[in-house]
Structures are given as C-alpha cells and as structure tokens.
Specification:
The complex is a heterodimer of chains A (603) and B (215). With 603 residues, chain A is α/β, with parallel strands linked by helices. Chain A has two domains: 3-232, 3-Layer(aba) Sandwich (Rossmann fold); 259-493 and 571-594, tm_1862 like domain (pyruvate-formate lyase- activating enzyme). Chain A is built from 20 helices and 19 strands. In chain A, α14 links the parallel β16 and β17 (446-453). In chain A, α5 crosses α17, α9 (289-303) runs parallel beside α10 and α17 crosses α18. Chain B is an alpha+beta fold and 215 residues long. Chain B has helices spanning 20-33, 80-85, 122-130, 180-190, and strands at 3-11, 50-52, 61-71, 92-99, 109-117, 134-138, 144-148, 153-161, 164-172, 196-205. In chain B, strands 1, 2, 3, 4, 5, 8, 9 and 10 form an eight-stranded mixed sheet that branches. Chain B is built from four helices and ten strands. The two termini of chain B are 21 Å apart. Chain B folds into two domains: 3-101, Alpha-Beta Plaits (2-Layer Sandwich), CATH 3.30.70.580; 106-205, 2-Layer Sandwich (Alpha-Beta Plaits). The mean pLDDT of chain B is 94. The chains are: A alpha/beta (603), B alpha+beta (215). At the A-B interface, α9 of A face α1 of B.
Chain lengths: 603, 215
C-alpha cells in the first residue's frame, strides 16, 4: 500500500481533502518502471497557493517532457492534515503516485518567499528525511531548490544540497541528465554535487567555506573542489522557442489564481530601486504576440479554463499588448473566457485598452504609487508623476469605475514624516478629483489605500540599508491614519512578518540554525497570519545566540562581503551602489528603453 | 433553441473527496473541454448553466448522480457519454445522457451502501434503526438539535461482507434530507464508538420507491 492509500480512509476528517488526493485532469501519470528518475516538485505552502504558481507549472511541464523522468507534486499540508499524517504514521507523499517522498530521487523545492522556509523543513520532516544536508547520504533523495529566494540562499544552505539560480527551464534539464547518468554509474553523492557545481547556475553550498570577522560580518566565502567563486544566474535568451505548458493541470478544487497564466515577458525596464524581481529578472525579453496567442489557445482548449491572466512585472510595458489583446479578446469573447490584466501602471493606463481586452467588470483598479511624495518616488526611482496618476484616476472614474486601490510602502529609505503624511494627502486629492470629474456622485466611490512595510532586499540598491524598525513603522502608520480623510479606507500590513522576511532574506549561513530551531519549536506556515508568531521566532534566535537586528536593522558599508555576494543576478554591485548614491540625491534613473545605465546585464 | 440535457454519472475513487462545488467546477471545465454548444447564464460573469441533484457528501461515492446542463443545439445522446468520459478527470464516469428528464423534485429517497468496519452485531444494528436513534442533527438553520433519525429511514438491511458489515439504507432525500453520516453517527453513539464507515449512493427513488429512472 502506498502512503496515500494508507491515509485515504481517514481523509474526510480534514478540511478540503481534495487538496491531498491528486487525480486532476492533465496531471501526469507515468509508469514508474519506465523512467530512470523520479522527481517530486515540492511547494512549501498549501495546494491552493502552490497550484497558482507559474514556476511550478512550467517546471512540471519541462521535467515531464523528458521521457526518462516522472515529475510529481507535493505541497505543505495544513495543520489538520499534518496532525493526521503524524497520528497515522504516514509519510508525506506525492499526489500523482501516492508514493512517499523518501522514495524519490530528487525533491525539488521552490523558494518563493522567505516565510515558507519552515515549511521546507516541515515537508522534509514529514517525508522522514534528516533536515540537514550533511546528515543525508546516498540512501536519501537529493534536495534541491530554486525560485526567487535562491538569489540569497544562505539561511537555507544547511538544508539544501543544491540551489538553481535564475531561470530554470534549461538548467533543470541539464541537471536531470547529470543525475540520470550519475544514478546509472552509481556515483557517490559528493561526486554528483561536484559535477553539478560545474553546471552554470547551480550553487552547491557545501563546497563553499564561509569565514567571519570578529564584528560578525563575513570575511570571505571561498569555493573548493573547482566550484566557481561566483555563481551566475541562468538566463533564457529566446522565450519564443521555450516550451510552455500545453496541457495545464485543471485544479479540481478552488485555488487562489485559477487561470491560464500567459507570460508576456521577463525582466523589467523600469529599475525601481526597491524591487528585487525587477533586477534579478533582467534583461527584458518579450514573447511575440503570435507565440502568446497560440500558447493561450492551446492551454485553454486543453484545460477548459475560463480565465487568462496576462502576467509580467509590468503588463502595460509589453510592446505587443495592443496587438495581443486585439487578437486574443475576440477569440475569448464567444468562448466566455475572461482576460485579466494585472500589474498595470498608472502612467500607461487607458480605458480603451481595457475595453479592447473585453474587461467589462468595473469593480476595481489598482495602482501602485509606492510613495506619497514625488521626492520619495524619485528616491526609489518609481518615476510616476502625480499628474499621470491623476489622469489615470480621472479616466477610470469617468469611464465607469467606482473605485481605485492605491498601494504604498512605509519605511522607505530617507522617508520623512512629511513623506508619510503625503500618502494621506495624495489619497485625499484622488478623492477630490472624483468629486470634480464625476457628475453623478450618487453611486459613491471606494478609494482604498494599502500600505506594506518596505523590506530592503538583496540584489537591489537598498541591499545595504537598514529596515525601519517595526515600532517606528507603527508610528508612521499612525501618522498616515491621522492624516487620512474619512472617505478613504486605509489598511496596512503589520511589520512583524516583514521584519522576519528581512532577516531571512539578508541573513548569512548562521541564520539556518535559527530556522531549524524555530521549526522545532513549532513555527510553520509563517506566511499565514493565524500561524505566525514573531515572539516564537525571537525565542529561536535567542536560543541560537543570533541577533536578528544585526541582519535587519544594520546599515552595511560598501566594502562589506554580503551573504549573497557570491551569487550574481548579472547586475553589478557597482551599479547597485551607483543607484544607491542616486537614491540619496533623489535622482531618477532612466528606463532601460530610454538609455542604458550600464547595470552589467548586457541585454 | 434551448435544450436541457441530463447526465447520469458515477463519482468514485479519488473523485469522492471533491465537494459539491468542486464537482460543479469539474463539470464546467469538462463540458468546456468537450467543446459542446453550451448555454451560458446572462450577465457580466457568464457561466455554464448546470445543476446537480441532491448534493453528495464529501468522501462519499455514488453510481447514481444526476446533472443537468443547457445546450443551444441538438446533440447526439448516444455519443455524448464517451465524449465526456474522454475529458473528465479520474473517478468520473458518465453512464447515460438524455434530453430532458423527470423533474428532480420527484426524487424522494436515496439508497446508500454503508460499509462499516465494526464489531457490532447485525441484529443489534437492525434493532437500533427499528426503534429510535437520537443524534445531534443540524436543522435548516444549521443549529444542532437532538433528533430521532429513524423516521427518515425508509428501510435498512444489514449483512456481513467479508470482515465488515454492509448496511443498505434507504433514506429521505426530500426535506428533511437525511445525510447517511447521521446513520454512521448513531452507529458510533449506540453500538460501537470505534466503527469506521465508507459510503456509496446506489440508487435514487421516487415517492413510490421506484427507481428514479429514464434519467
């Protein structure tokens, strides 16, 4: 009996058991005897979140295209299912075969956000595996990880055998080939890892020795056994010839984003200084509207979905947007497929475009000025003029939308109380605008302002900056609330989770001990506010003699060896420092399309 | 032209864990994949017009489900089951399709096969469901109220099946509907707290206890 078959009789005891059964249309079944390698793609959060992740869908497809590998899926169980698995002594299993994770060759995690780190340990633990890479051997699966957090992997370095940095489509195939050959030849694990380290984009942390200075900062990260001194991220040059999931899994139960995700382009030309994705995904590479139209049709016809989401970091920057919408919308209309365009910028918002896309629901529009004052927007290089925001809102109000959401960040570098109050004033001016432009105000308006806490991230110009302490963030949120007029609904995210995110993103290898300690103490599902406890994490840091403020609240110097200095996203440290200096002067930088700032990615 | 099509289908295996809403989703996706001339609702958010008679509890199997949906053209009912089975996920099997059909409001009873892993004696099981069995049952307002479920049980039989017991129970399928979970609940309460159950709906009956047939 497989672990799934053992737990199946008890599944009605948990909430939404369909999350734990598999069997969805288009999920891939193979004969285990016909493959050389068995991989399980592990998403360290719930099924509903994981199945909404484009990366999972792409890599599931890429790996299963290889006839010699069967790639399955596993997700983190919710608390009730975790309890059931433990009570029945059933290990975590993969959804396709129902086999226990321990019986696989490779566990491939995606690290989408830092607050899922304890869930990685949860899944290893439920699989019956030692958490630390050093305690695993040839009898255990290889544990690999990729995703955005692989750009700053050190806090997870003790648990993961190998990280894949950057875009995964090609490097995953190269690694599968290596592992297939290694399995045939019976290569010992250390030899496999040494060979893997020679593949560009793969980082094997056990091959690097980290030394520290007396002040606690890094002295050096030194490679051994031929591993590269700097691991450079992988980039796919031509997205048009990249395979794209043709038969997306149709989730049988409700998931967060239930749509065919059509990736318009990768990279972002804007250079917002706070945005890690904007830097790590460079350079900008577009897919052609023809390619996208074909991919959308195939995917929708094969999965029976009813929504297509155009995804990218900034949808309105896609040069083929009008063409694509012009061909896609007439195809979607009669099929009752809706088209959604998230990530629109206020300075390129046009109601005519949304009309073309056939978006008829006028429930809400979201714009992200990020900062209240023009000065602070220059600091972060979010070059959005207030006049552009106002004309976008005016167009929305007169075009029939009766609500806008505005997103801001609190705690940005060099933020003053005046900047903070300006968030409220800007929202007030949007409300005034609505009063001016809408003749019939009977229907009312919903202006919502949301603020999150700025977390300075690795691989951005603000990587050296301290995070604003949570107490100070609370004070600033109070300032906004005081100054906000009552017609605007204001909410903001508590800073505790952001603080931990900051520690885990900028931490070095020593932080891993605290991650393990926190997990052992019971921290799981930290991304869920009902589960998260910063107090428990503080206890874990204290128990491991780690000062989290050292990572979150300390200003770093330009010469400091950063825990991610040996991982390169292609943008040079010099460029980041230049951008940081410009931020100090509130000087904007050009959009890549209007002039090269010499970031080093070499488009 | 607007036509109503009724499907009879099975929901077994892993599919039994899909809720009523999930099942609606699955059919919305599958009917779309089959490229049928579907009828959609009006409004900003058009969706396929479909309804499933007598929602089945999560975790229960059935070989006698009924689903209605609308189409805008005549269709070949003979080939429809195969066309749908080709695009349905594991656990779903359309056995028949027909245009129109009797009103589902005539469904009065549903028969279930309840397999119990239990030490109880068959005579005691039958005796329980012949007298009275009071359990905490949700009423229409979702409040838990002590209720004798026996009046909602039309008939039971019980016989050993391997090392388990098989209870065949005909239960009210009209307000107040009796979910077979309550039968299991009574069993645990009065006969064997350790008993474990699995459920399969095997027949839908009309007021005369005749099969709710010809779809």
């Amino acid at each position: 009996m497989t672990p799934y078959q053992r737990i199946e009789p008890f599944l009605t005891a948990v909430k939404k058991p369909a999350r734990y059964t598999g069997g969805e249309y288009n999920s891939v079944q193979k004969d285990p005897r016909s493959v050389d390698l068995r991989v399980v793609f592990c998403f360290p959060d719930t099924y509903e979140i994981g199945m909404s992740c484009l990366g999972l869908r792409i890599l599931y497809d890429v790996i299963n295209r290889l006839p010699y590998v069967w790639c399955e899926r596993a997700f983190a169980p919710w608390e009730d299912m975790r309890g059931l698995l433990l009570r029945k002594k059933v290990p975590l299993y993969a959804l396709e075969s129902g086999d226990g994770l321990r019986d696989f060759d490779v566990l491939a995690f995606t690290l989408q956000y830092e607050l899922s780190y304890t869930n990685v340990l949860l899944m290893l633990d439920l699989a019956g595996l030692p958490l630390r890479a050093a305690e695993r051997d040839e009898t255990h699966p290889l544990v690999i990880a990729g995703g955005p957090c692989a750009f700053h992997p050190e806090p997870m370095a003790d648990f993961i055998d190998l990280f894949a940095v950057g875009e995964g489509e090609e490097v995953t195939v190269e690694l599968m080939e290596l592992l297939r050959a290694a399995k045939k030849d019976g290569l010992p694990r250390h030899a496999v890892l040494e060979q893997a380290a020679a593949i560009p984009g793969l980082y094997v942390p056990s091959l690097y020795r980290v030394s520290y200075r007396p002040d606690g900062t890094l002295a050096a990260v030194e490679p051994s056994r031929g591993a590269p001194s700097v691991v450079k991220k992988r980039i796919i040059r031509d997205l048009n010839n990249l395979p794209c999931p043709e038969r997306p899994i149709a989730a049988s139960t409700e998931i967060v984003h239930d749509r065919v995700m059509l990736e318009l382009f990768r990279g972002c030309a804007r250079g917002c200084r706070f945005c890690q994705a904007g830097y790590t995904s460079r350079p900008v590479r577009e897919k052609s509207p023809e390619t996208l139209f074909g991919q959308a049709k195939t995917a929708i016809e094969n999965c029976g979905g009813s929504e297509i989401g155009l995804v990218s970091l900034s949808t309105s920057d896609y040069s083929g947007l009008e063409t694509l919408c012009g061909t896609l919308a007439p195809w979607c209309g009669p099929r009752r497929v809706s088209l959604s365009l998230p990530s629109l910028r206020a300075d390129s918002f046009s109601p005519s475009l949304l009309k073309k896309a056939g978006q008829v629901r006028k429930s809400g529009l979201t714009f992200a000025p990020e900062a209240g004052s023009a000065r602070l927007r220059n600091v972060i290089n979010k070059n959005l003029a207030e006049s552009d925001l106002m004309s976008a809102c005016a167009a929305a109000f007169t075009g029939g939308w009766n609500g806008v959401k505005l997103y801001f960040m609190l705690g940005l570098p060099a933020e003053t109380d005046e900047d903070v109050r300006e968030i409220a004033h800007l929202c007030g001016r949007v409300y005034q605008l609505w009063r001016q432009v809408v003749p019939d105000r009977g229907r009312g308006v919903r202006i919502t302002a949301g603020a999150s806490c700025f977390v300075p991230k690795p691989h951005t110009p603000f990587q050296w900056e301290p995070m604003t302490p949570p107490g100070e963030l609370r004070r600033r949120a109070g300032l906004v609330r005081e100054a906000m007029r009552k017609q605007v609904t204001f909410h903001w995210h508590e800073p505790d989770a952001g603080y931990l995110e900051c520690v885990l993103s900028r931490g070095d290898r020593r932080v891993g001990a605290a991650v393990e300690r926190a997990y052992r103490m019971g921290c799981r599902m930290d991304g869920w506010s009902e589960c998260f406890s910063l107090d428990m994490w503080r206890e874990a840091f204290a128990a491991e003699d780690i000062d989290p403020d050292f990572y979150a609240l300390r200003r770093r110097g330009p010469d400091e060896v950063l825990p991610w200095s040996h991982i390169s996203c292609g943008v040079s440290a010099e460029h980041f420092w230049r951008e940081r200096e410009k931020a100090v002067r509130a000087a904007p930088s050009a959009d890549c399309r209007n002039g090269c700032e010499g970031c080093g990615i070499c488009c | 032209m607007l036509l109503n099509i009724r499907l009879a289908y099975h929901k077994t295996g892993r599919a039994r864990f899909l809720s009523h809403l999930d099942t609606m989703r699955v059919f919305q996706q599958s009917l779309t994949r089959a490229k049928l001339p579907l009828r959609y609702s009006e409004g900003f958010n058009p969706h396929i017009v479909l309804s499933i008679a007598l929602p089945l509890g999560v975790g229960m199997e059935s070989v006698t489900e009924r689903l209605d949906f609308g189409v805008t053209e005549n269709m070949n009912m003979g080939t429809l089951p195969a066309a749908l089975n080709a695009v349905l996920p594991e656990g779903f099997l359309v056995s028949r399709a027909a245009a129109g059909g009797r009103s589902v409001s005539q469904i009065t009873f549903a028969r279930y096969e309840i397999t119990a892993d239990s030490q109880a004696k068959p005579e005691r099981v039958l005796a329980l469901f012949a007298s009275s069995a009071v359990v905490e049952k949700r009423n229409k307002r979702k409040e838990l109220v002590p209720t004798d479920i026996v009046p909602f049980i039309r008939g039971v039989s019980c016989e050993p099946s391997g090392d388990k017991l098989r209870l065949t129970a005909t239960l009210s399928a009209r307000e107040p509907v009796l979910n077979p979970e309550y039968v299991a609940e009574a069993w645990r309460l009065y006969l064997d707290p350790e008993a474990a159950f699995s459920f399969k709906r095997t027949a839908l009956l009309d007021g005369d206890e005749k099969l709710f047939d010809n779809l």
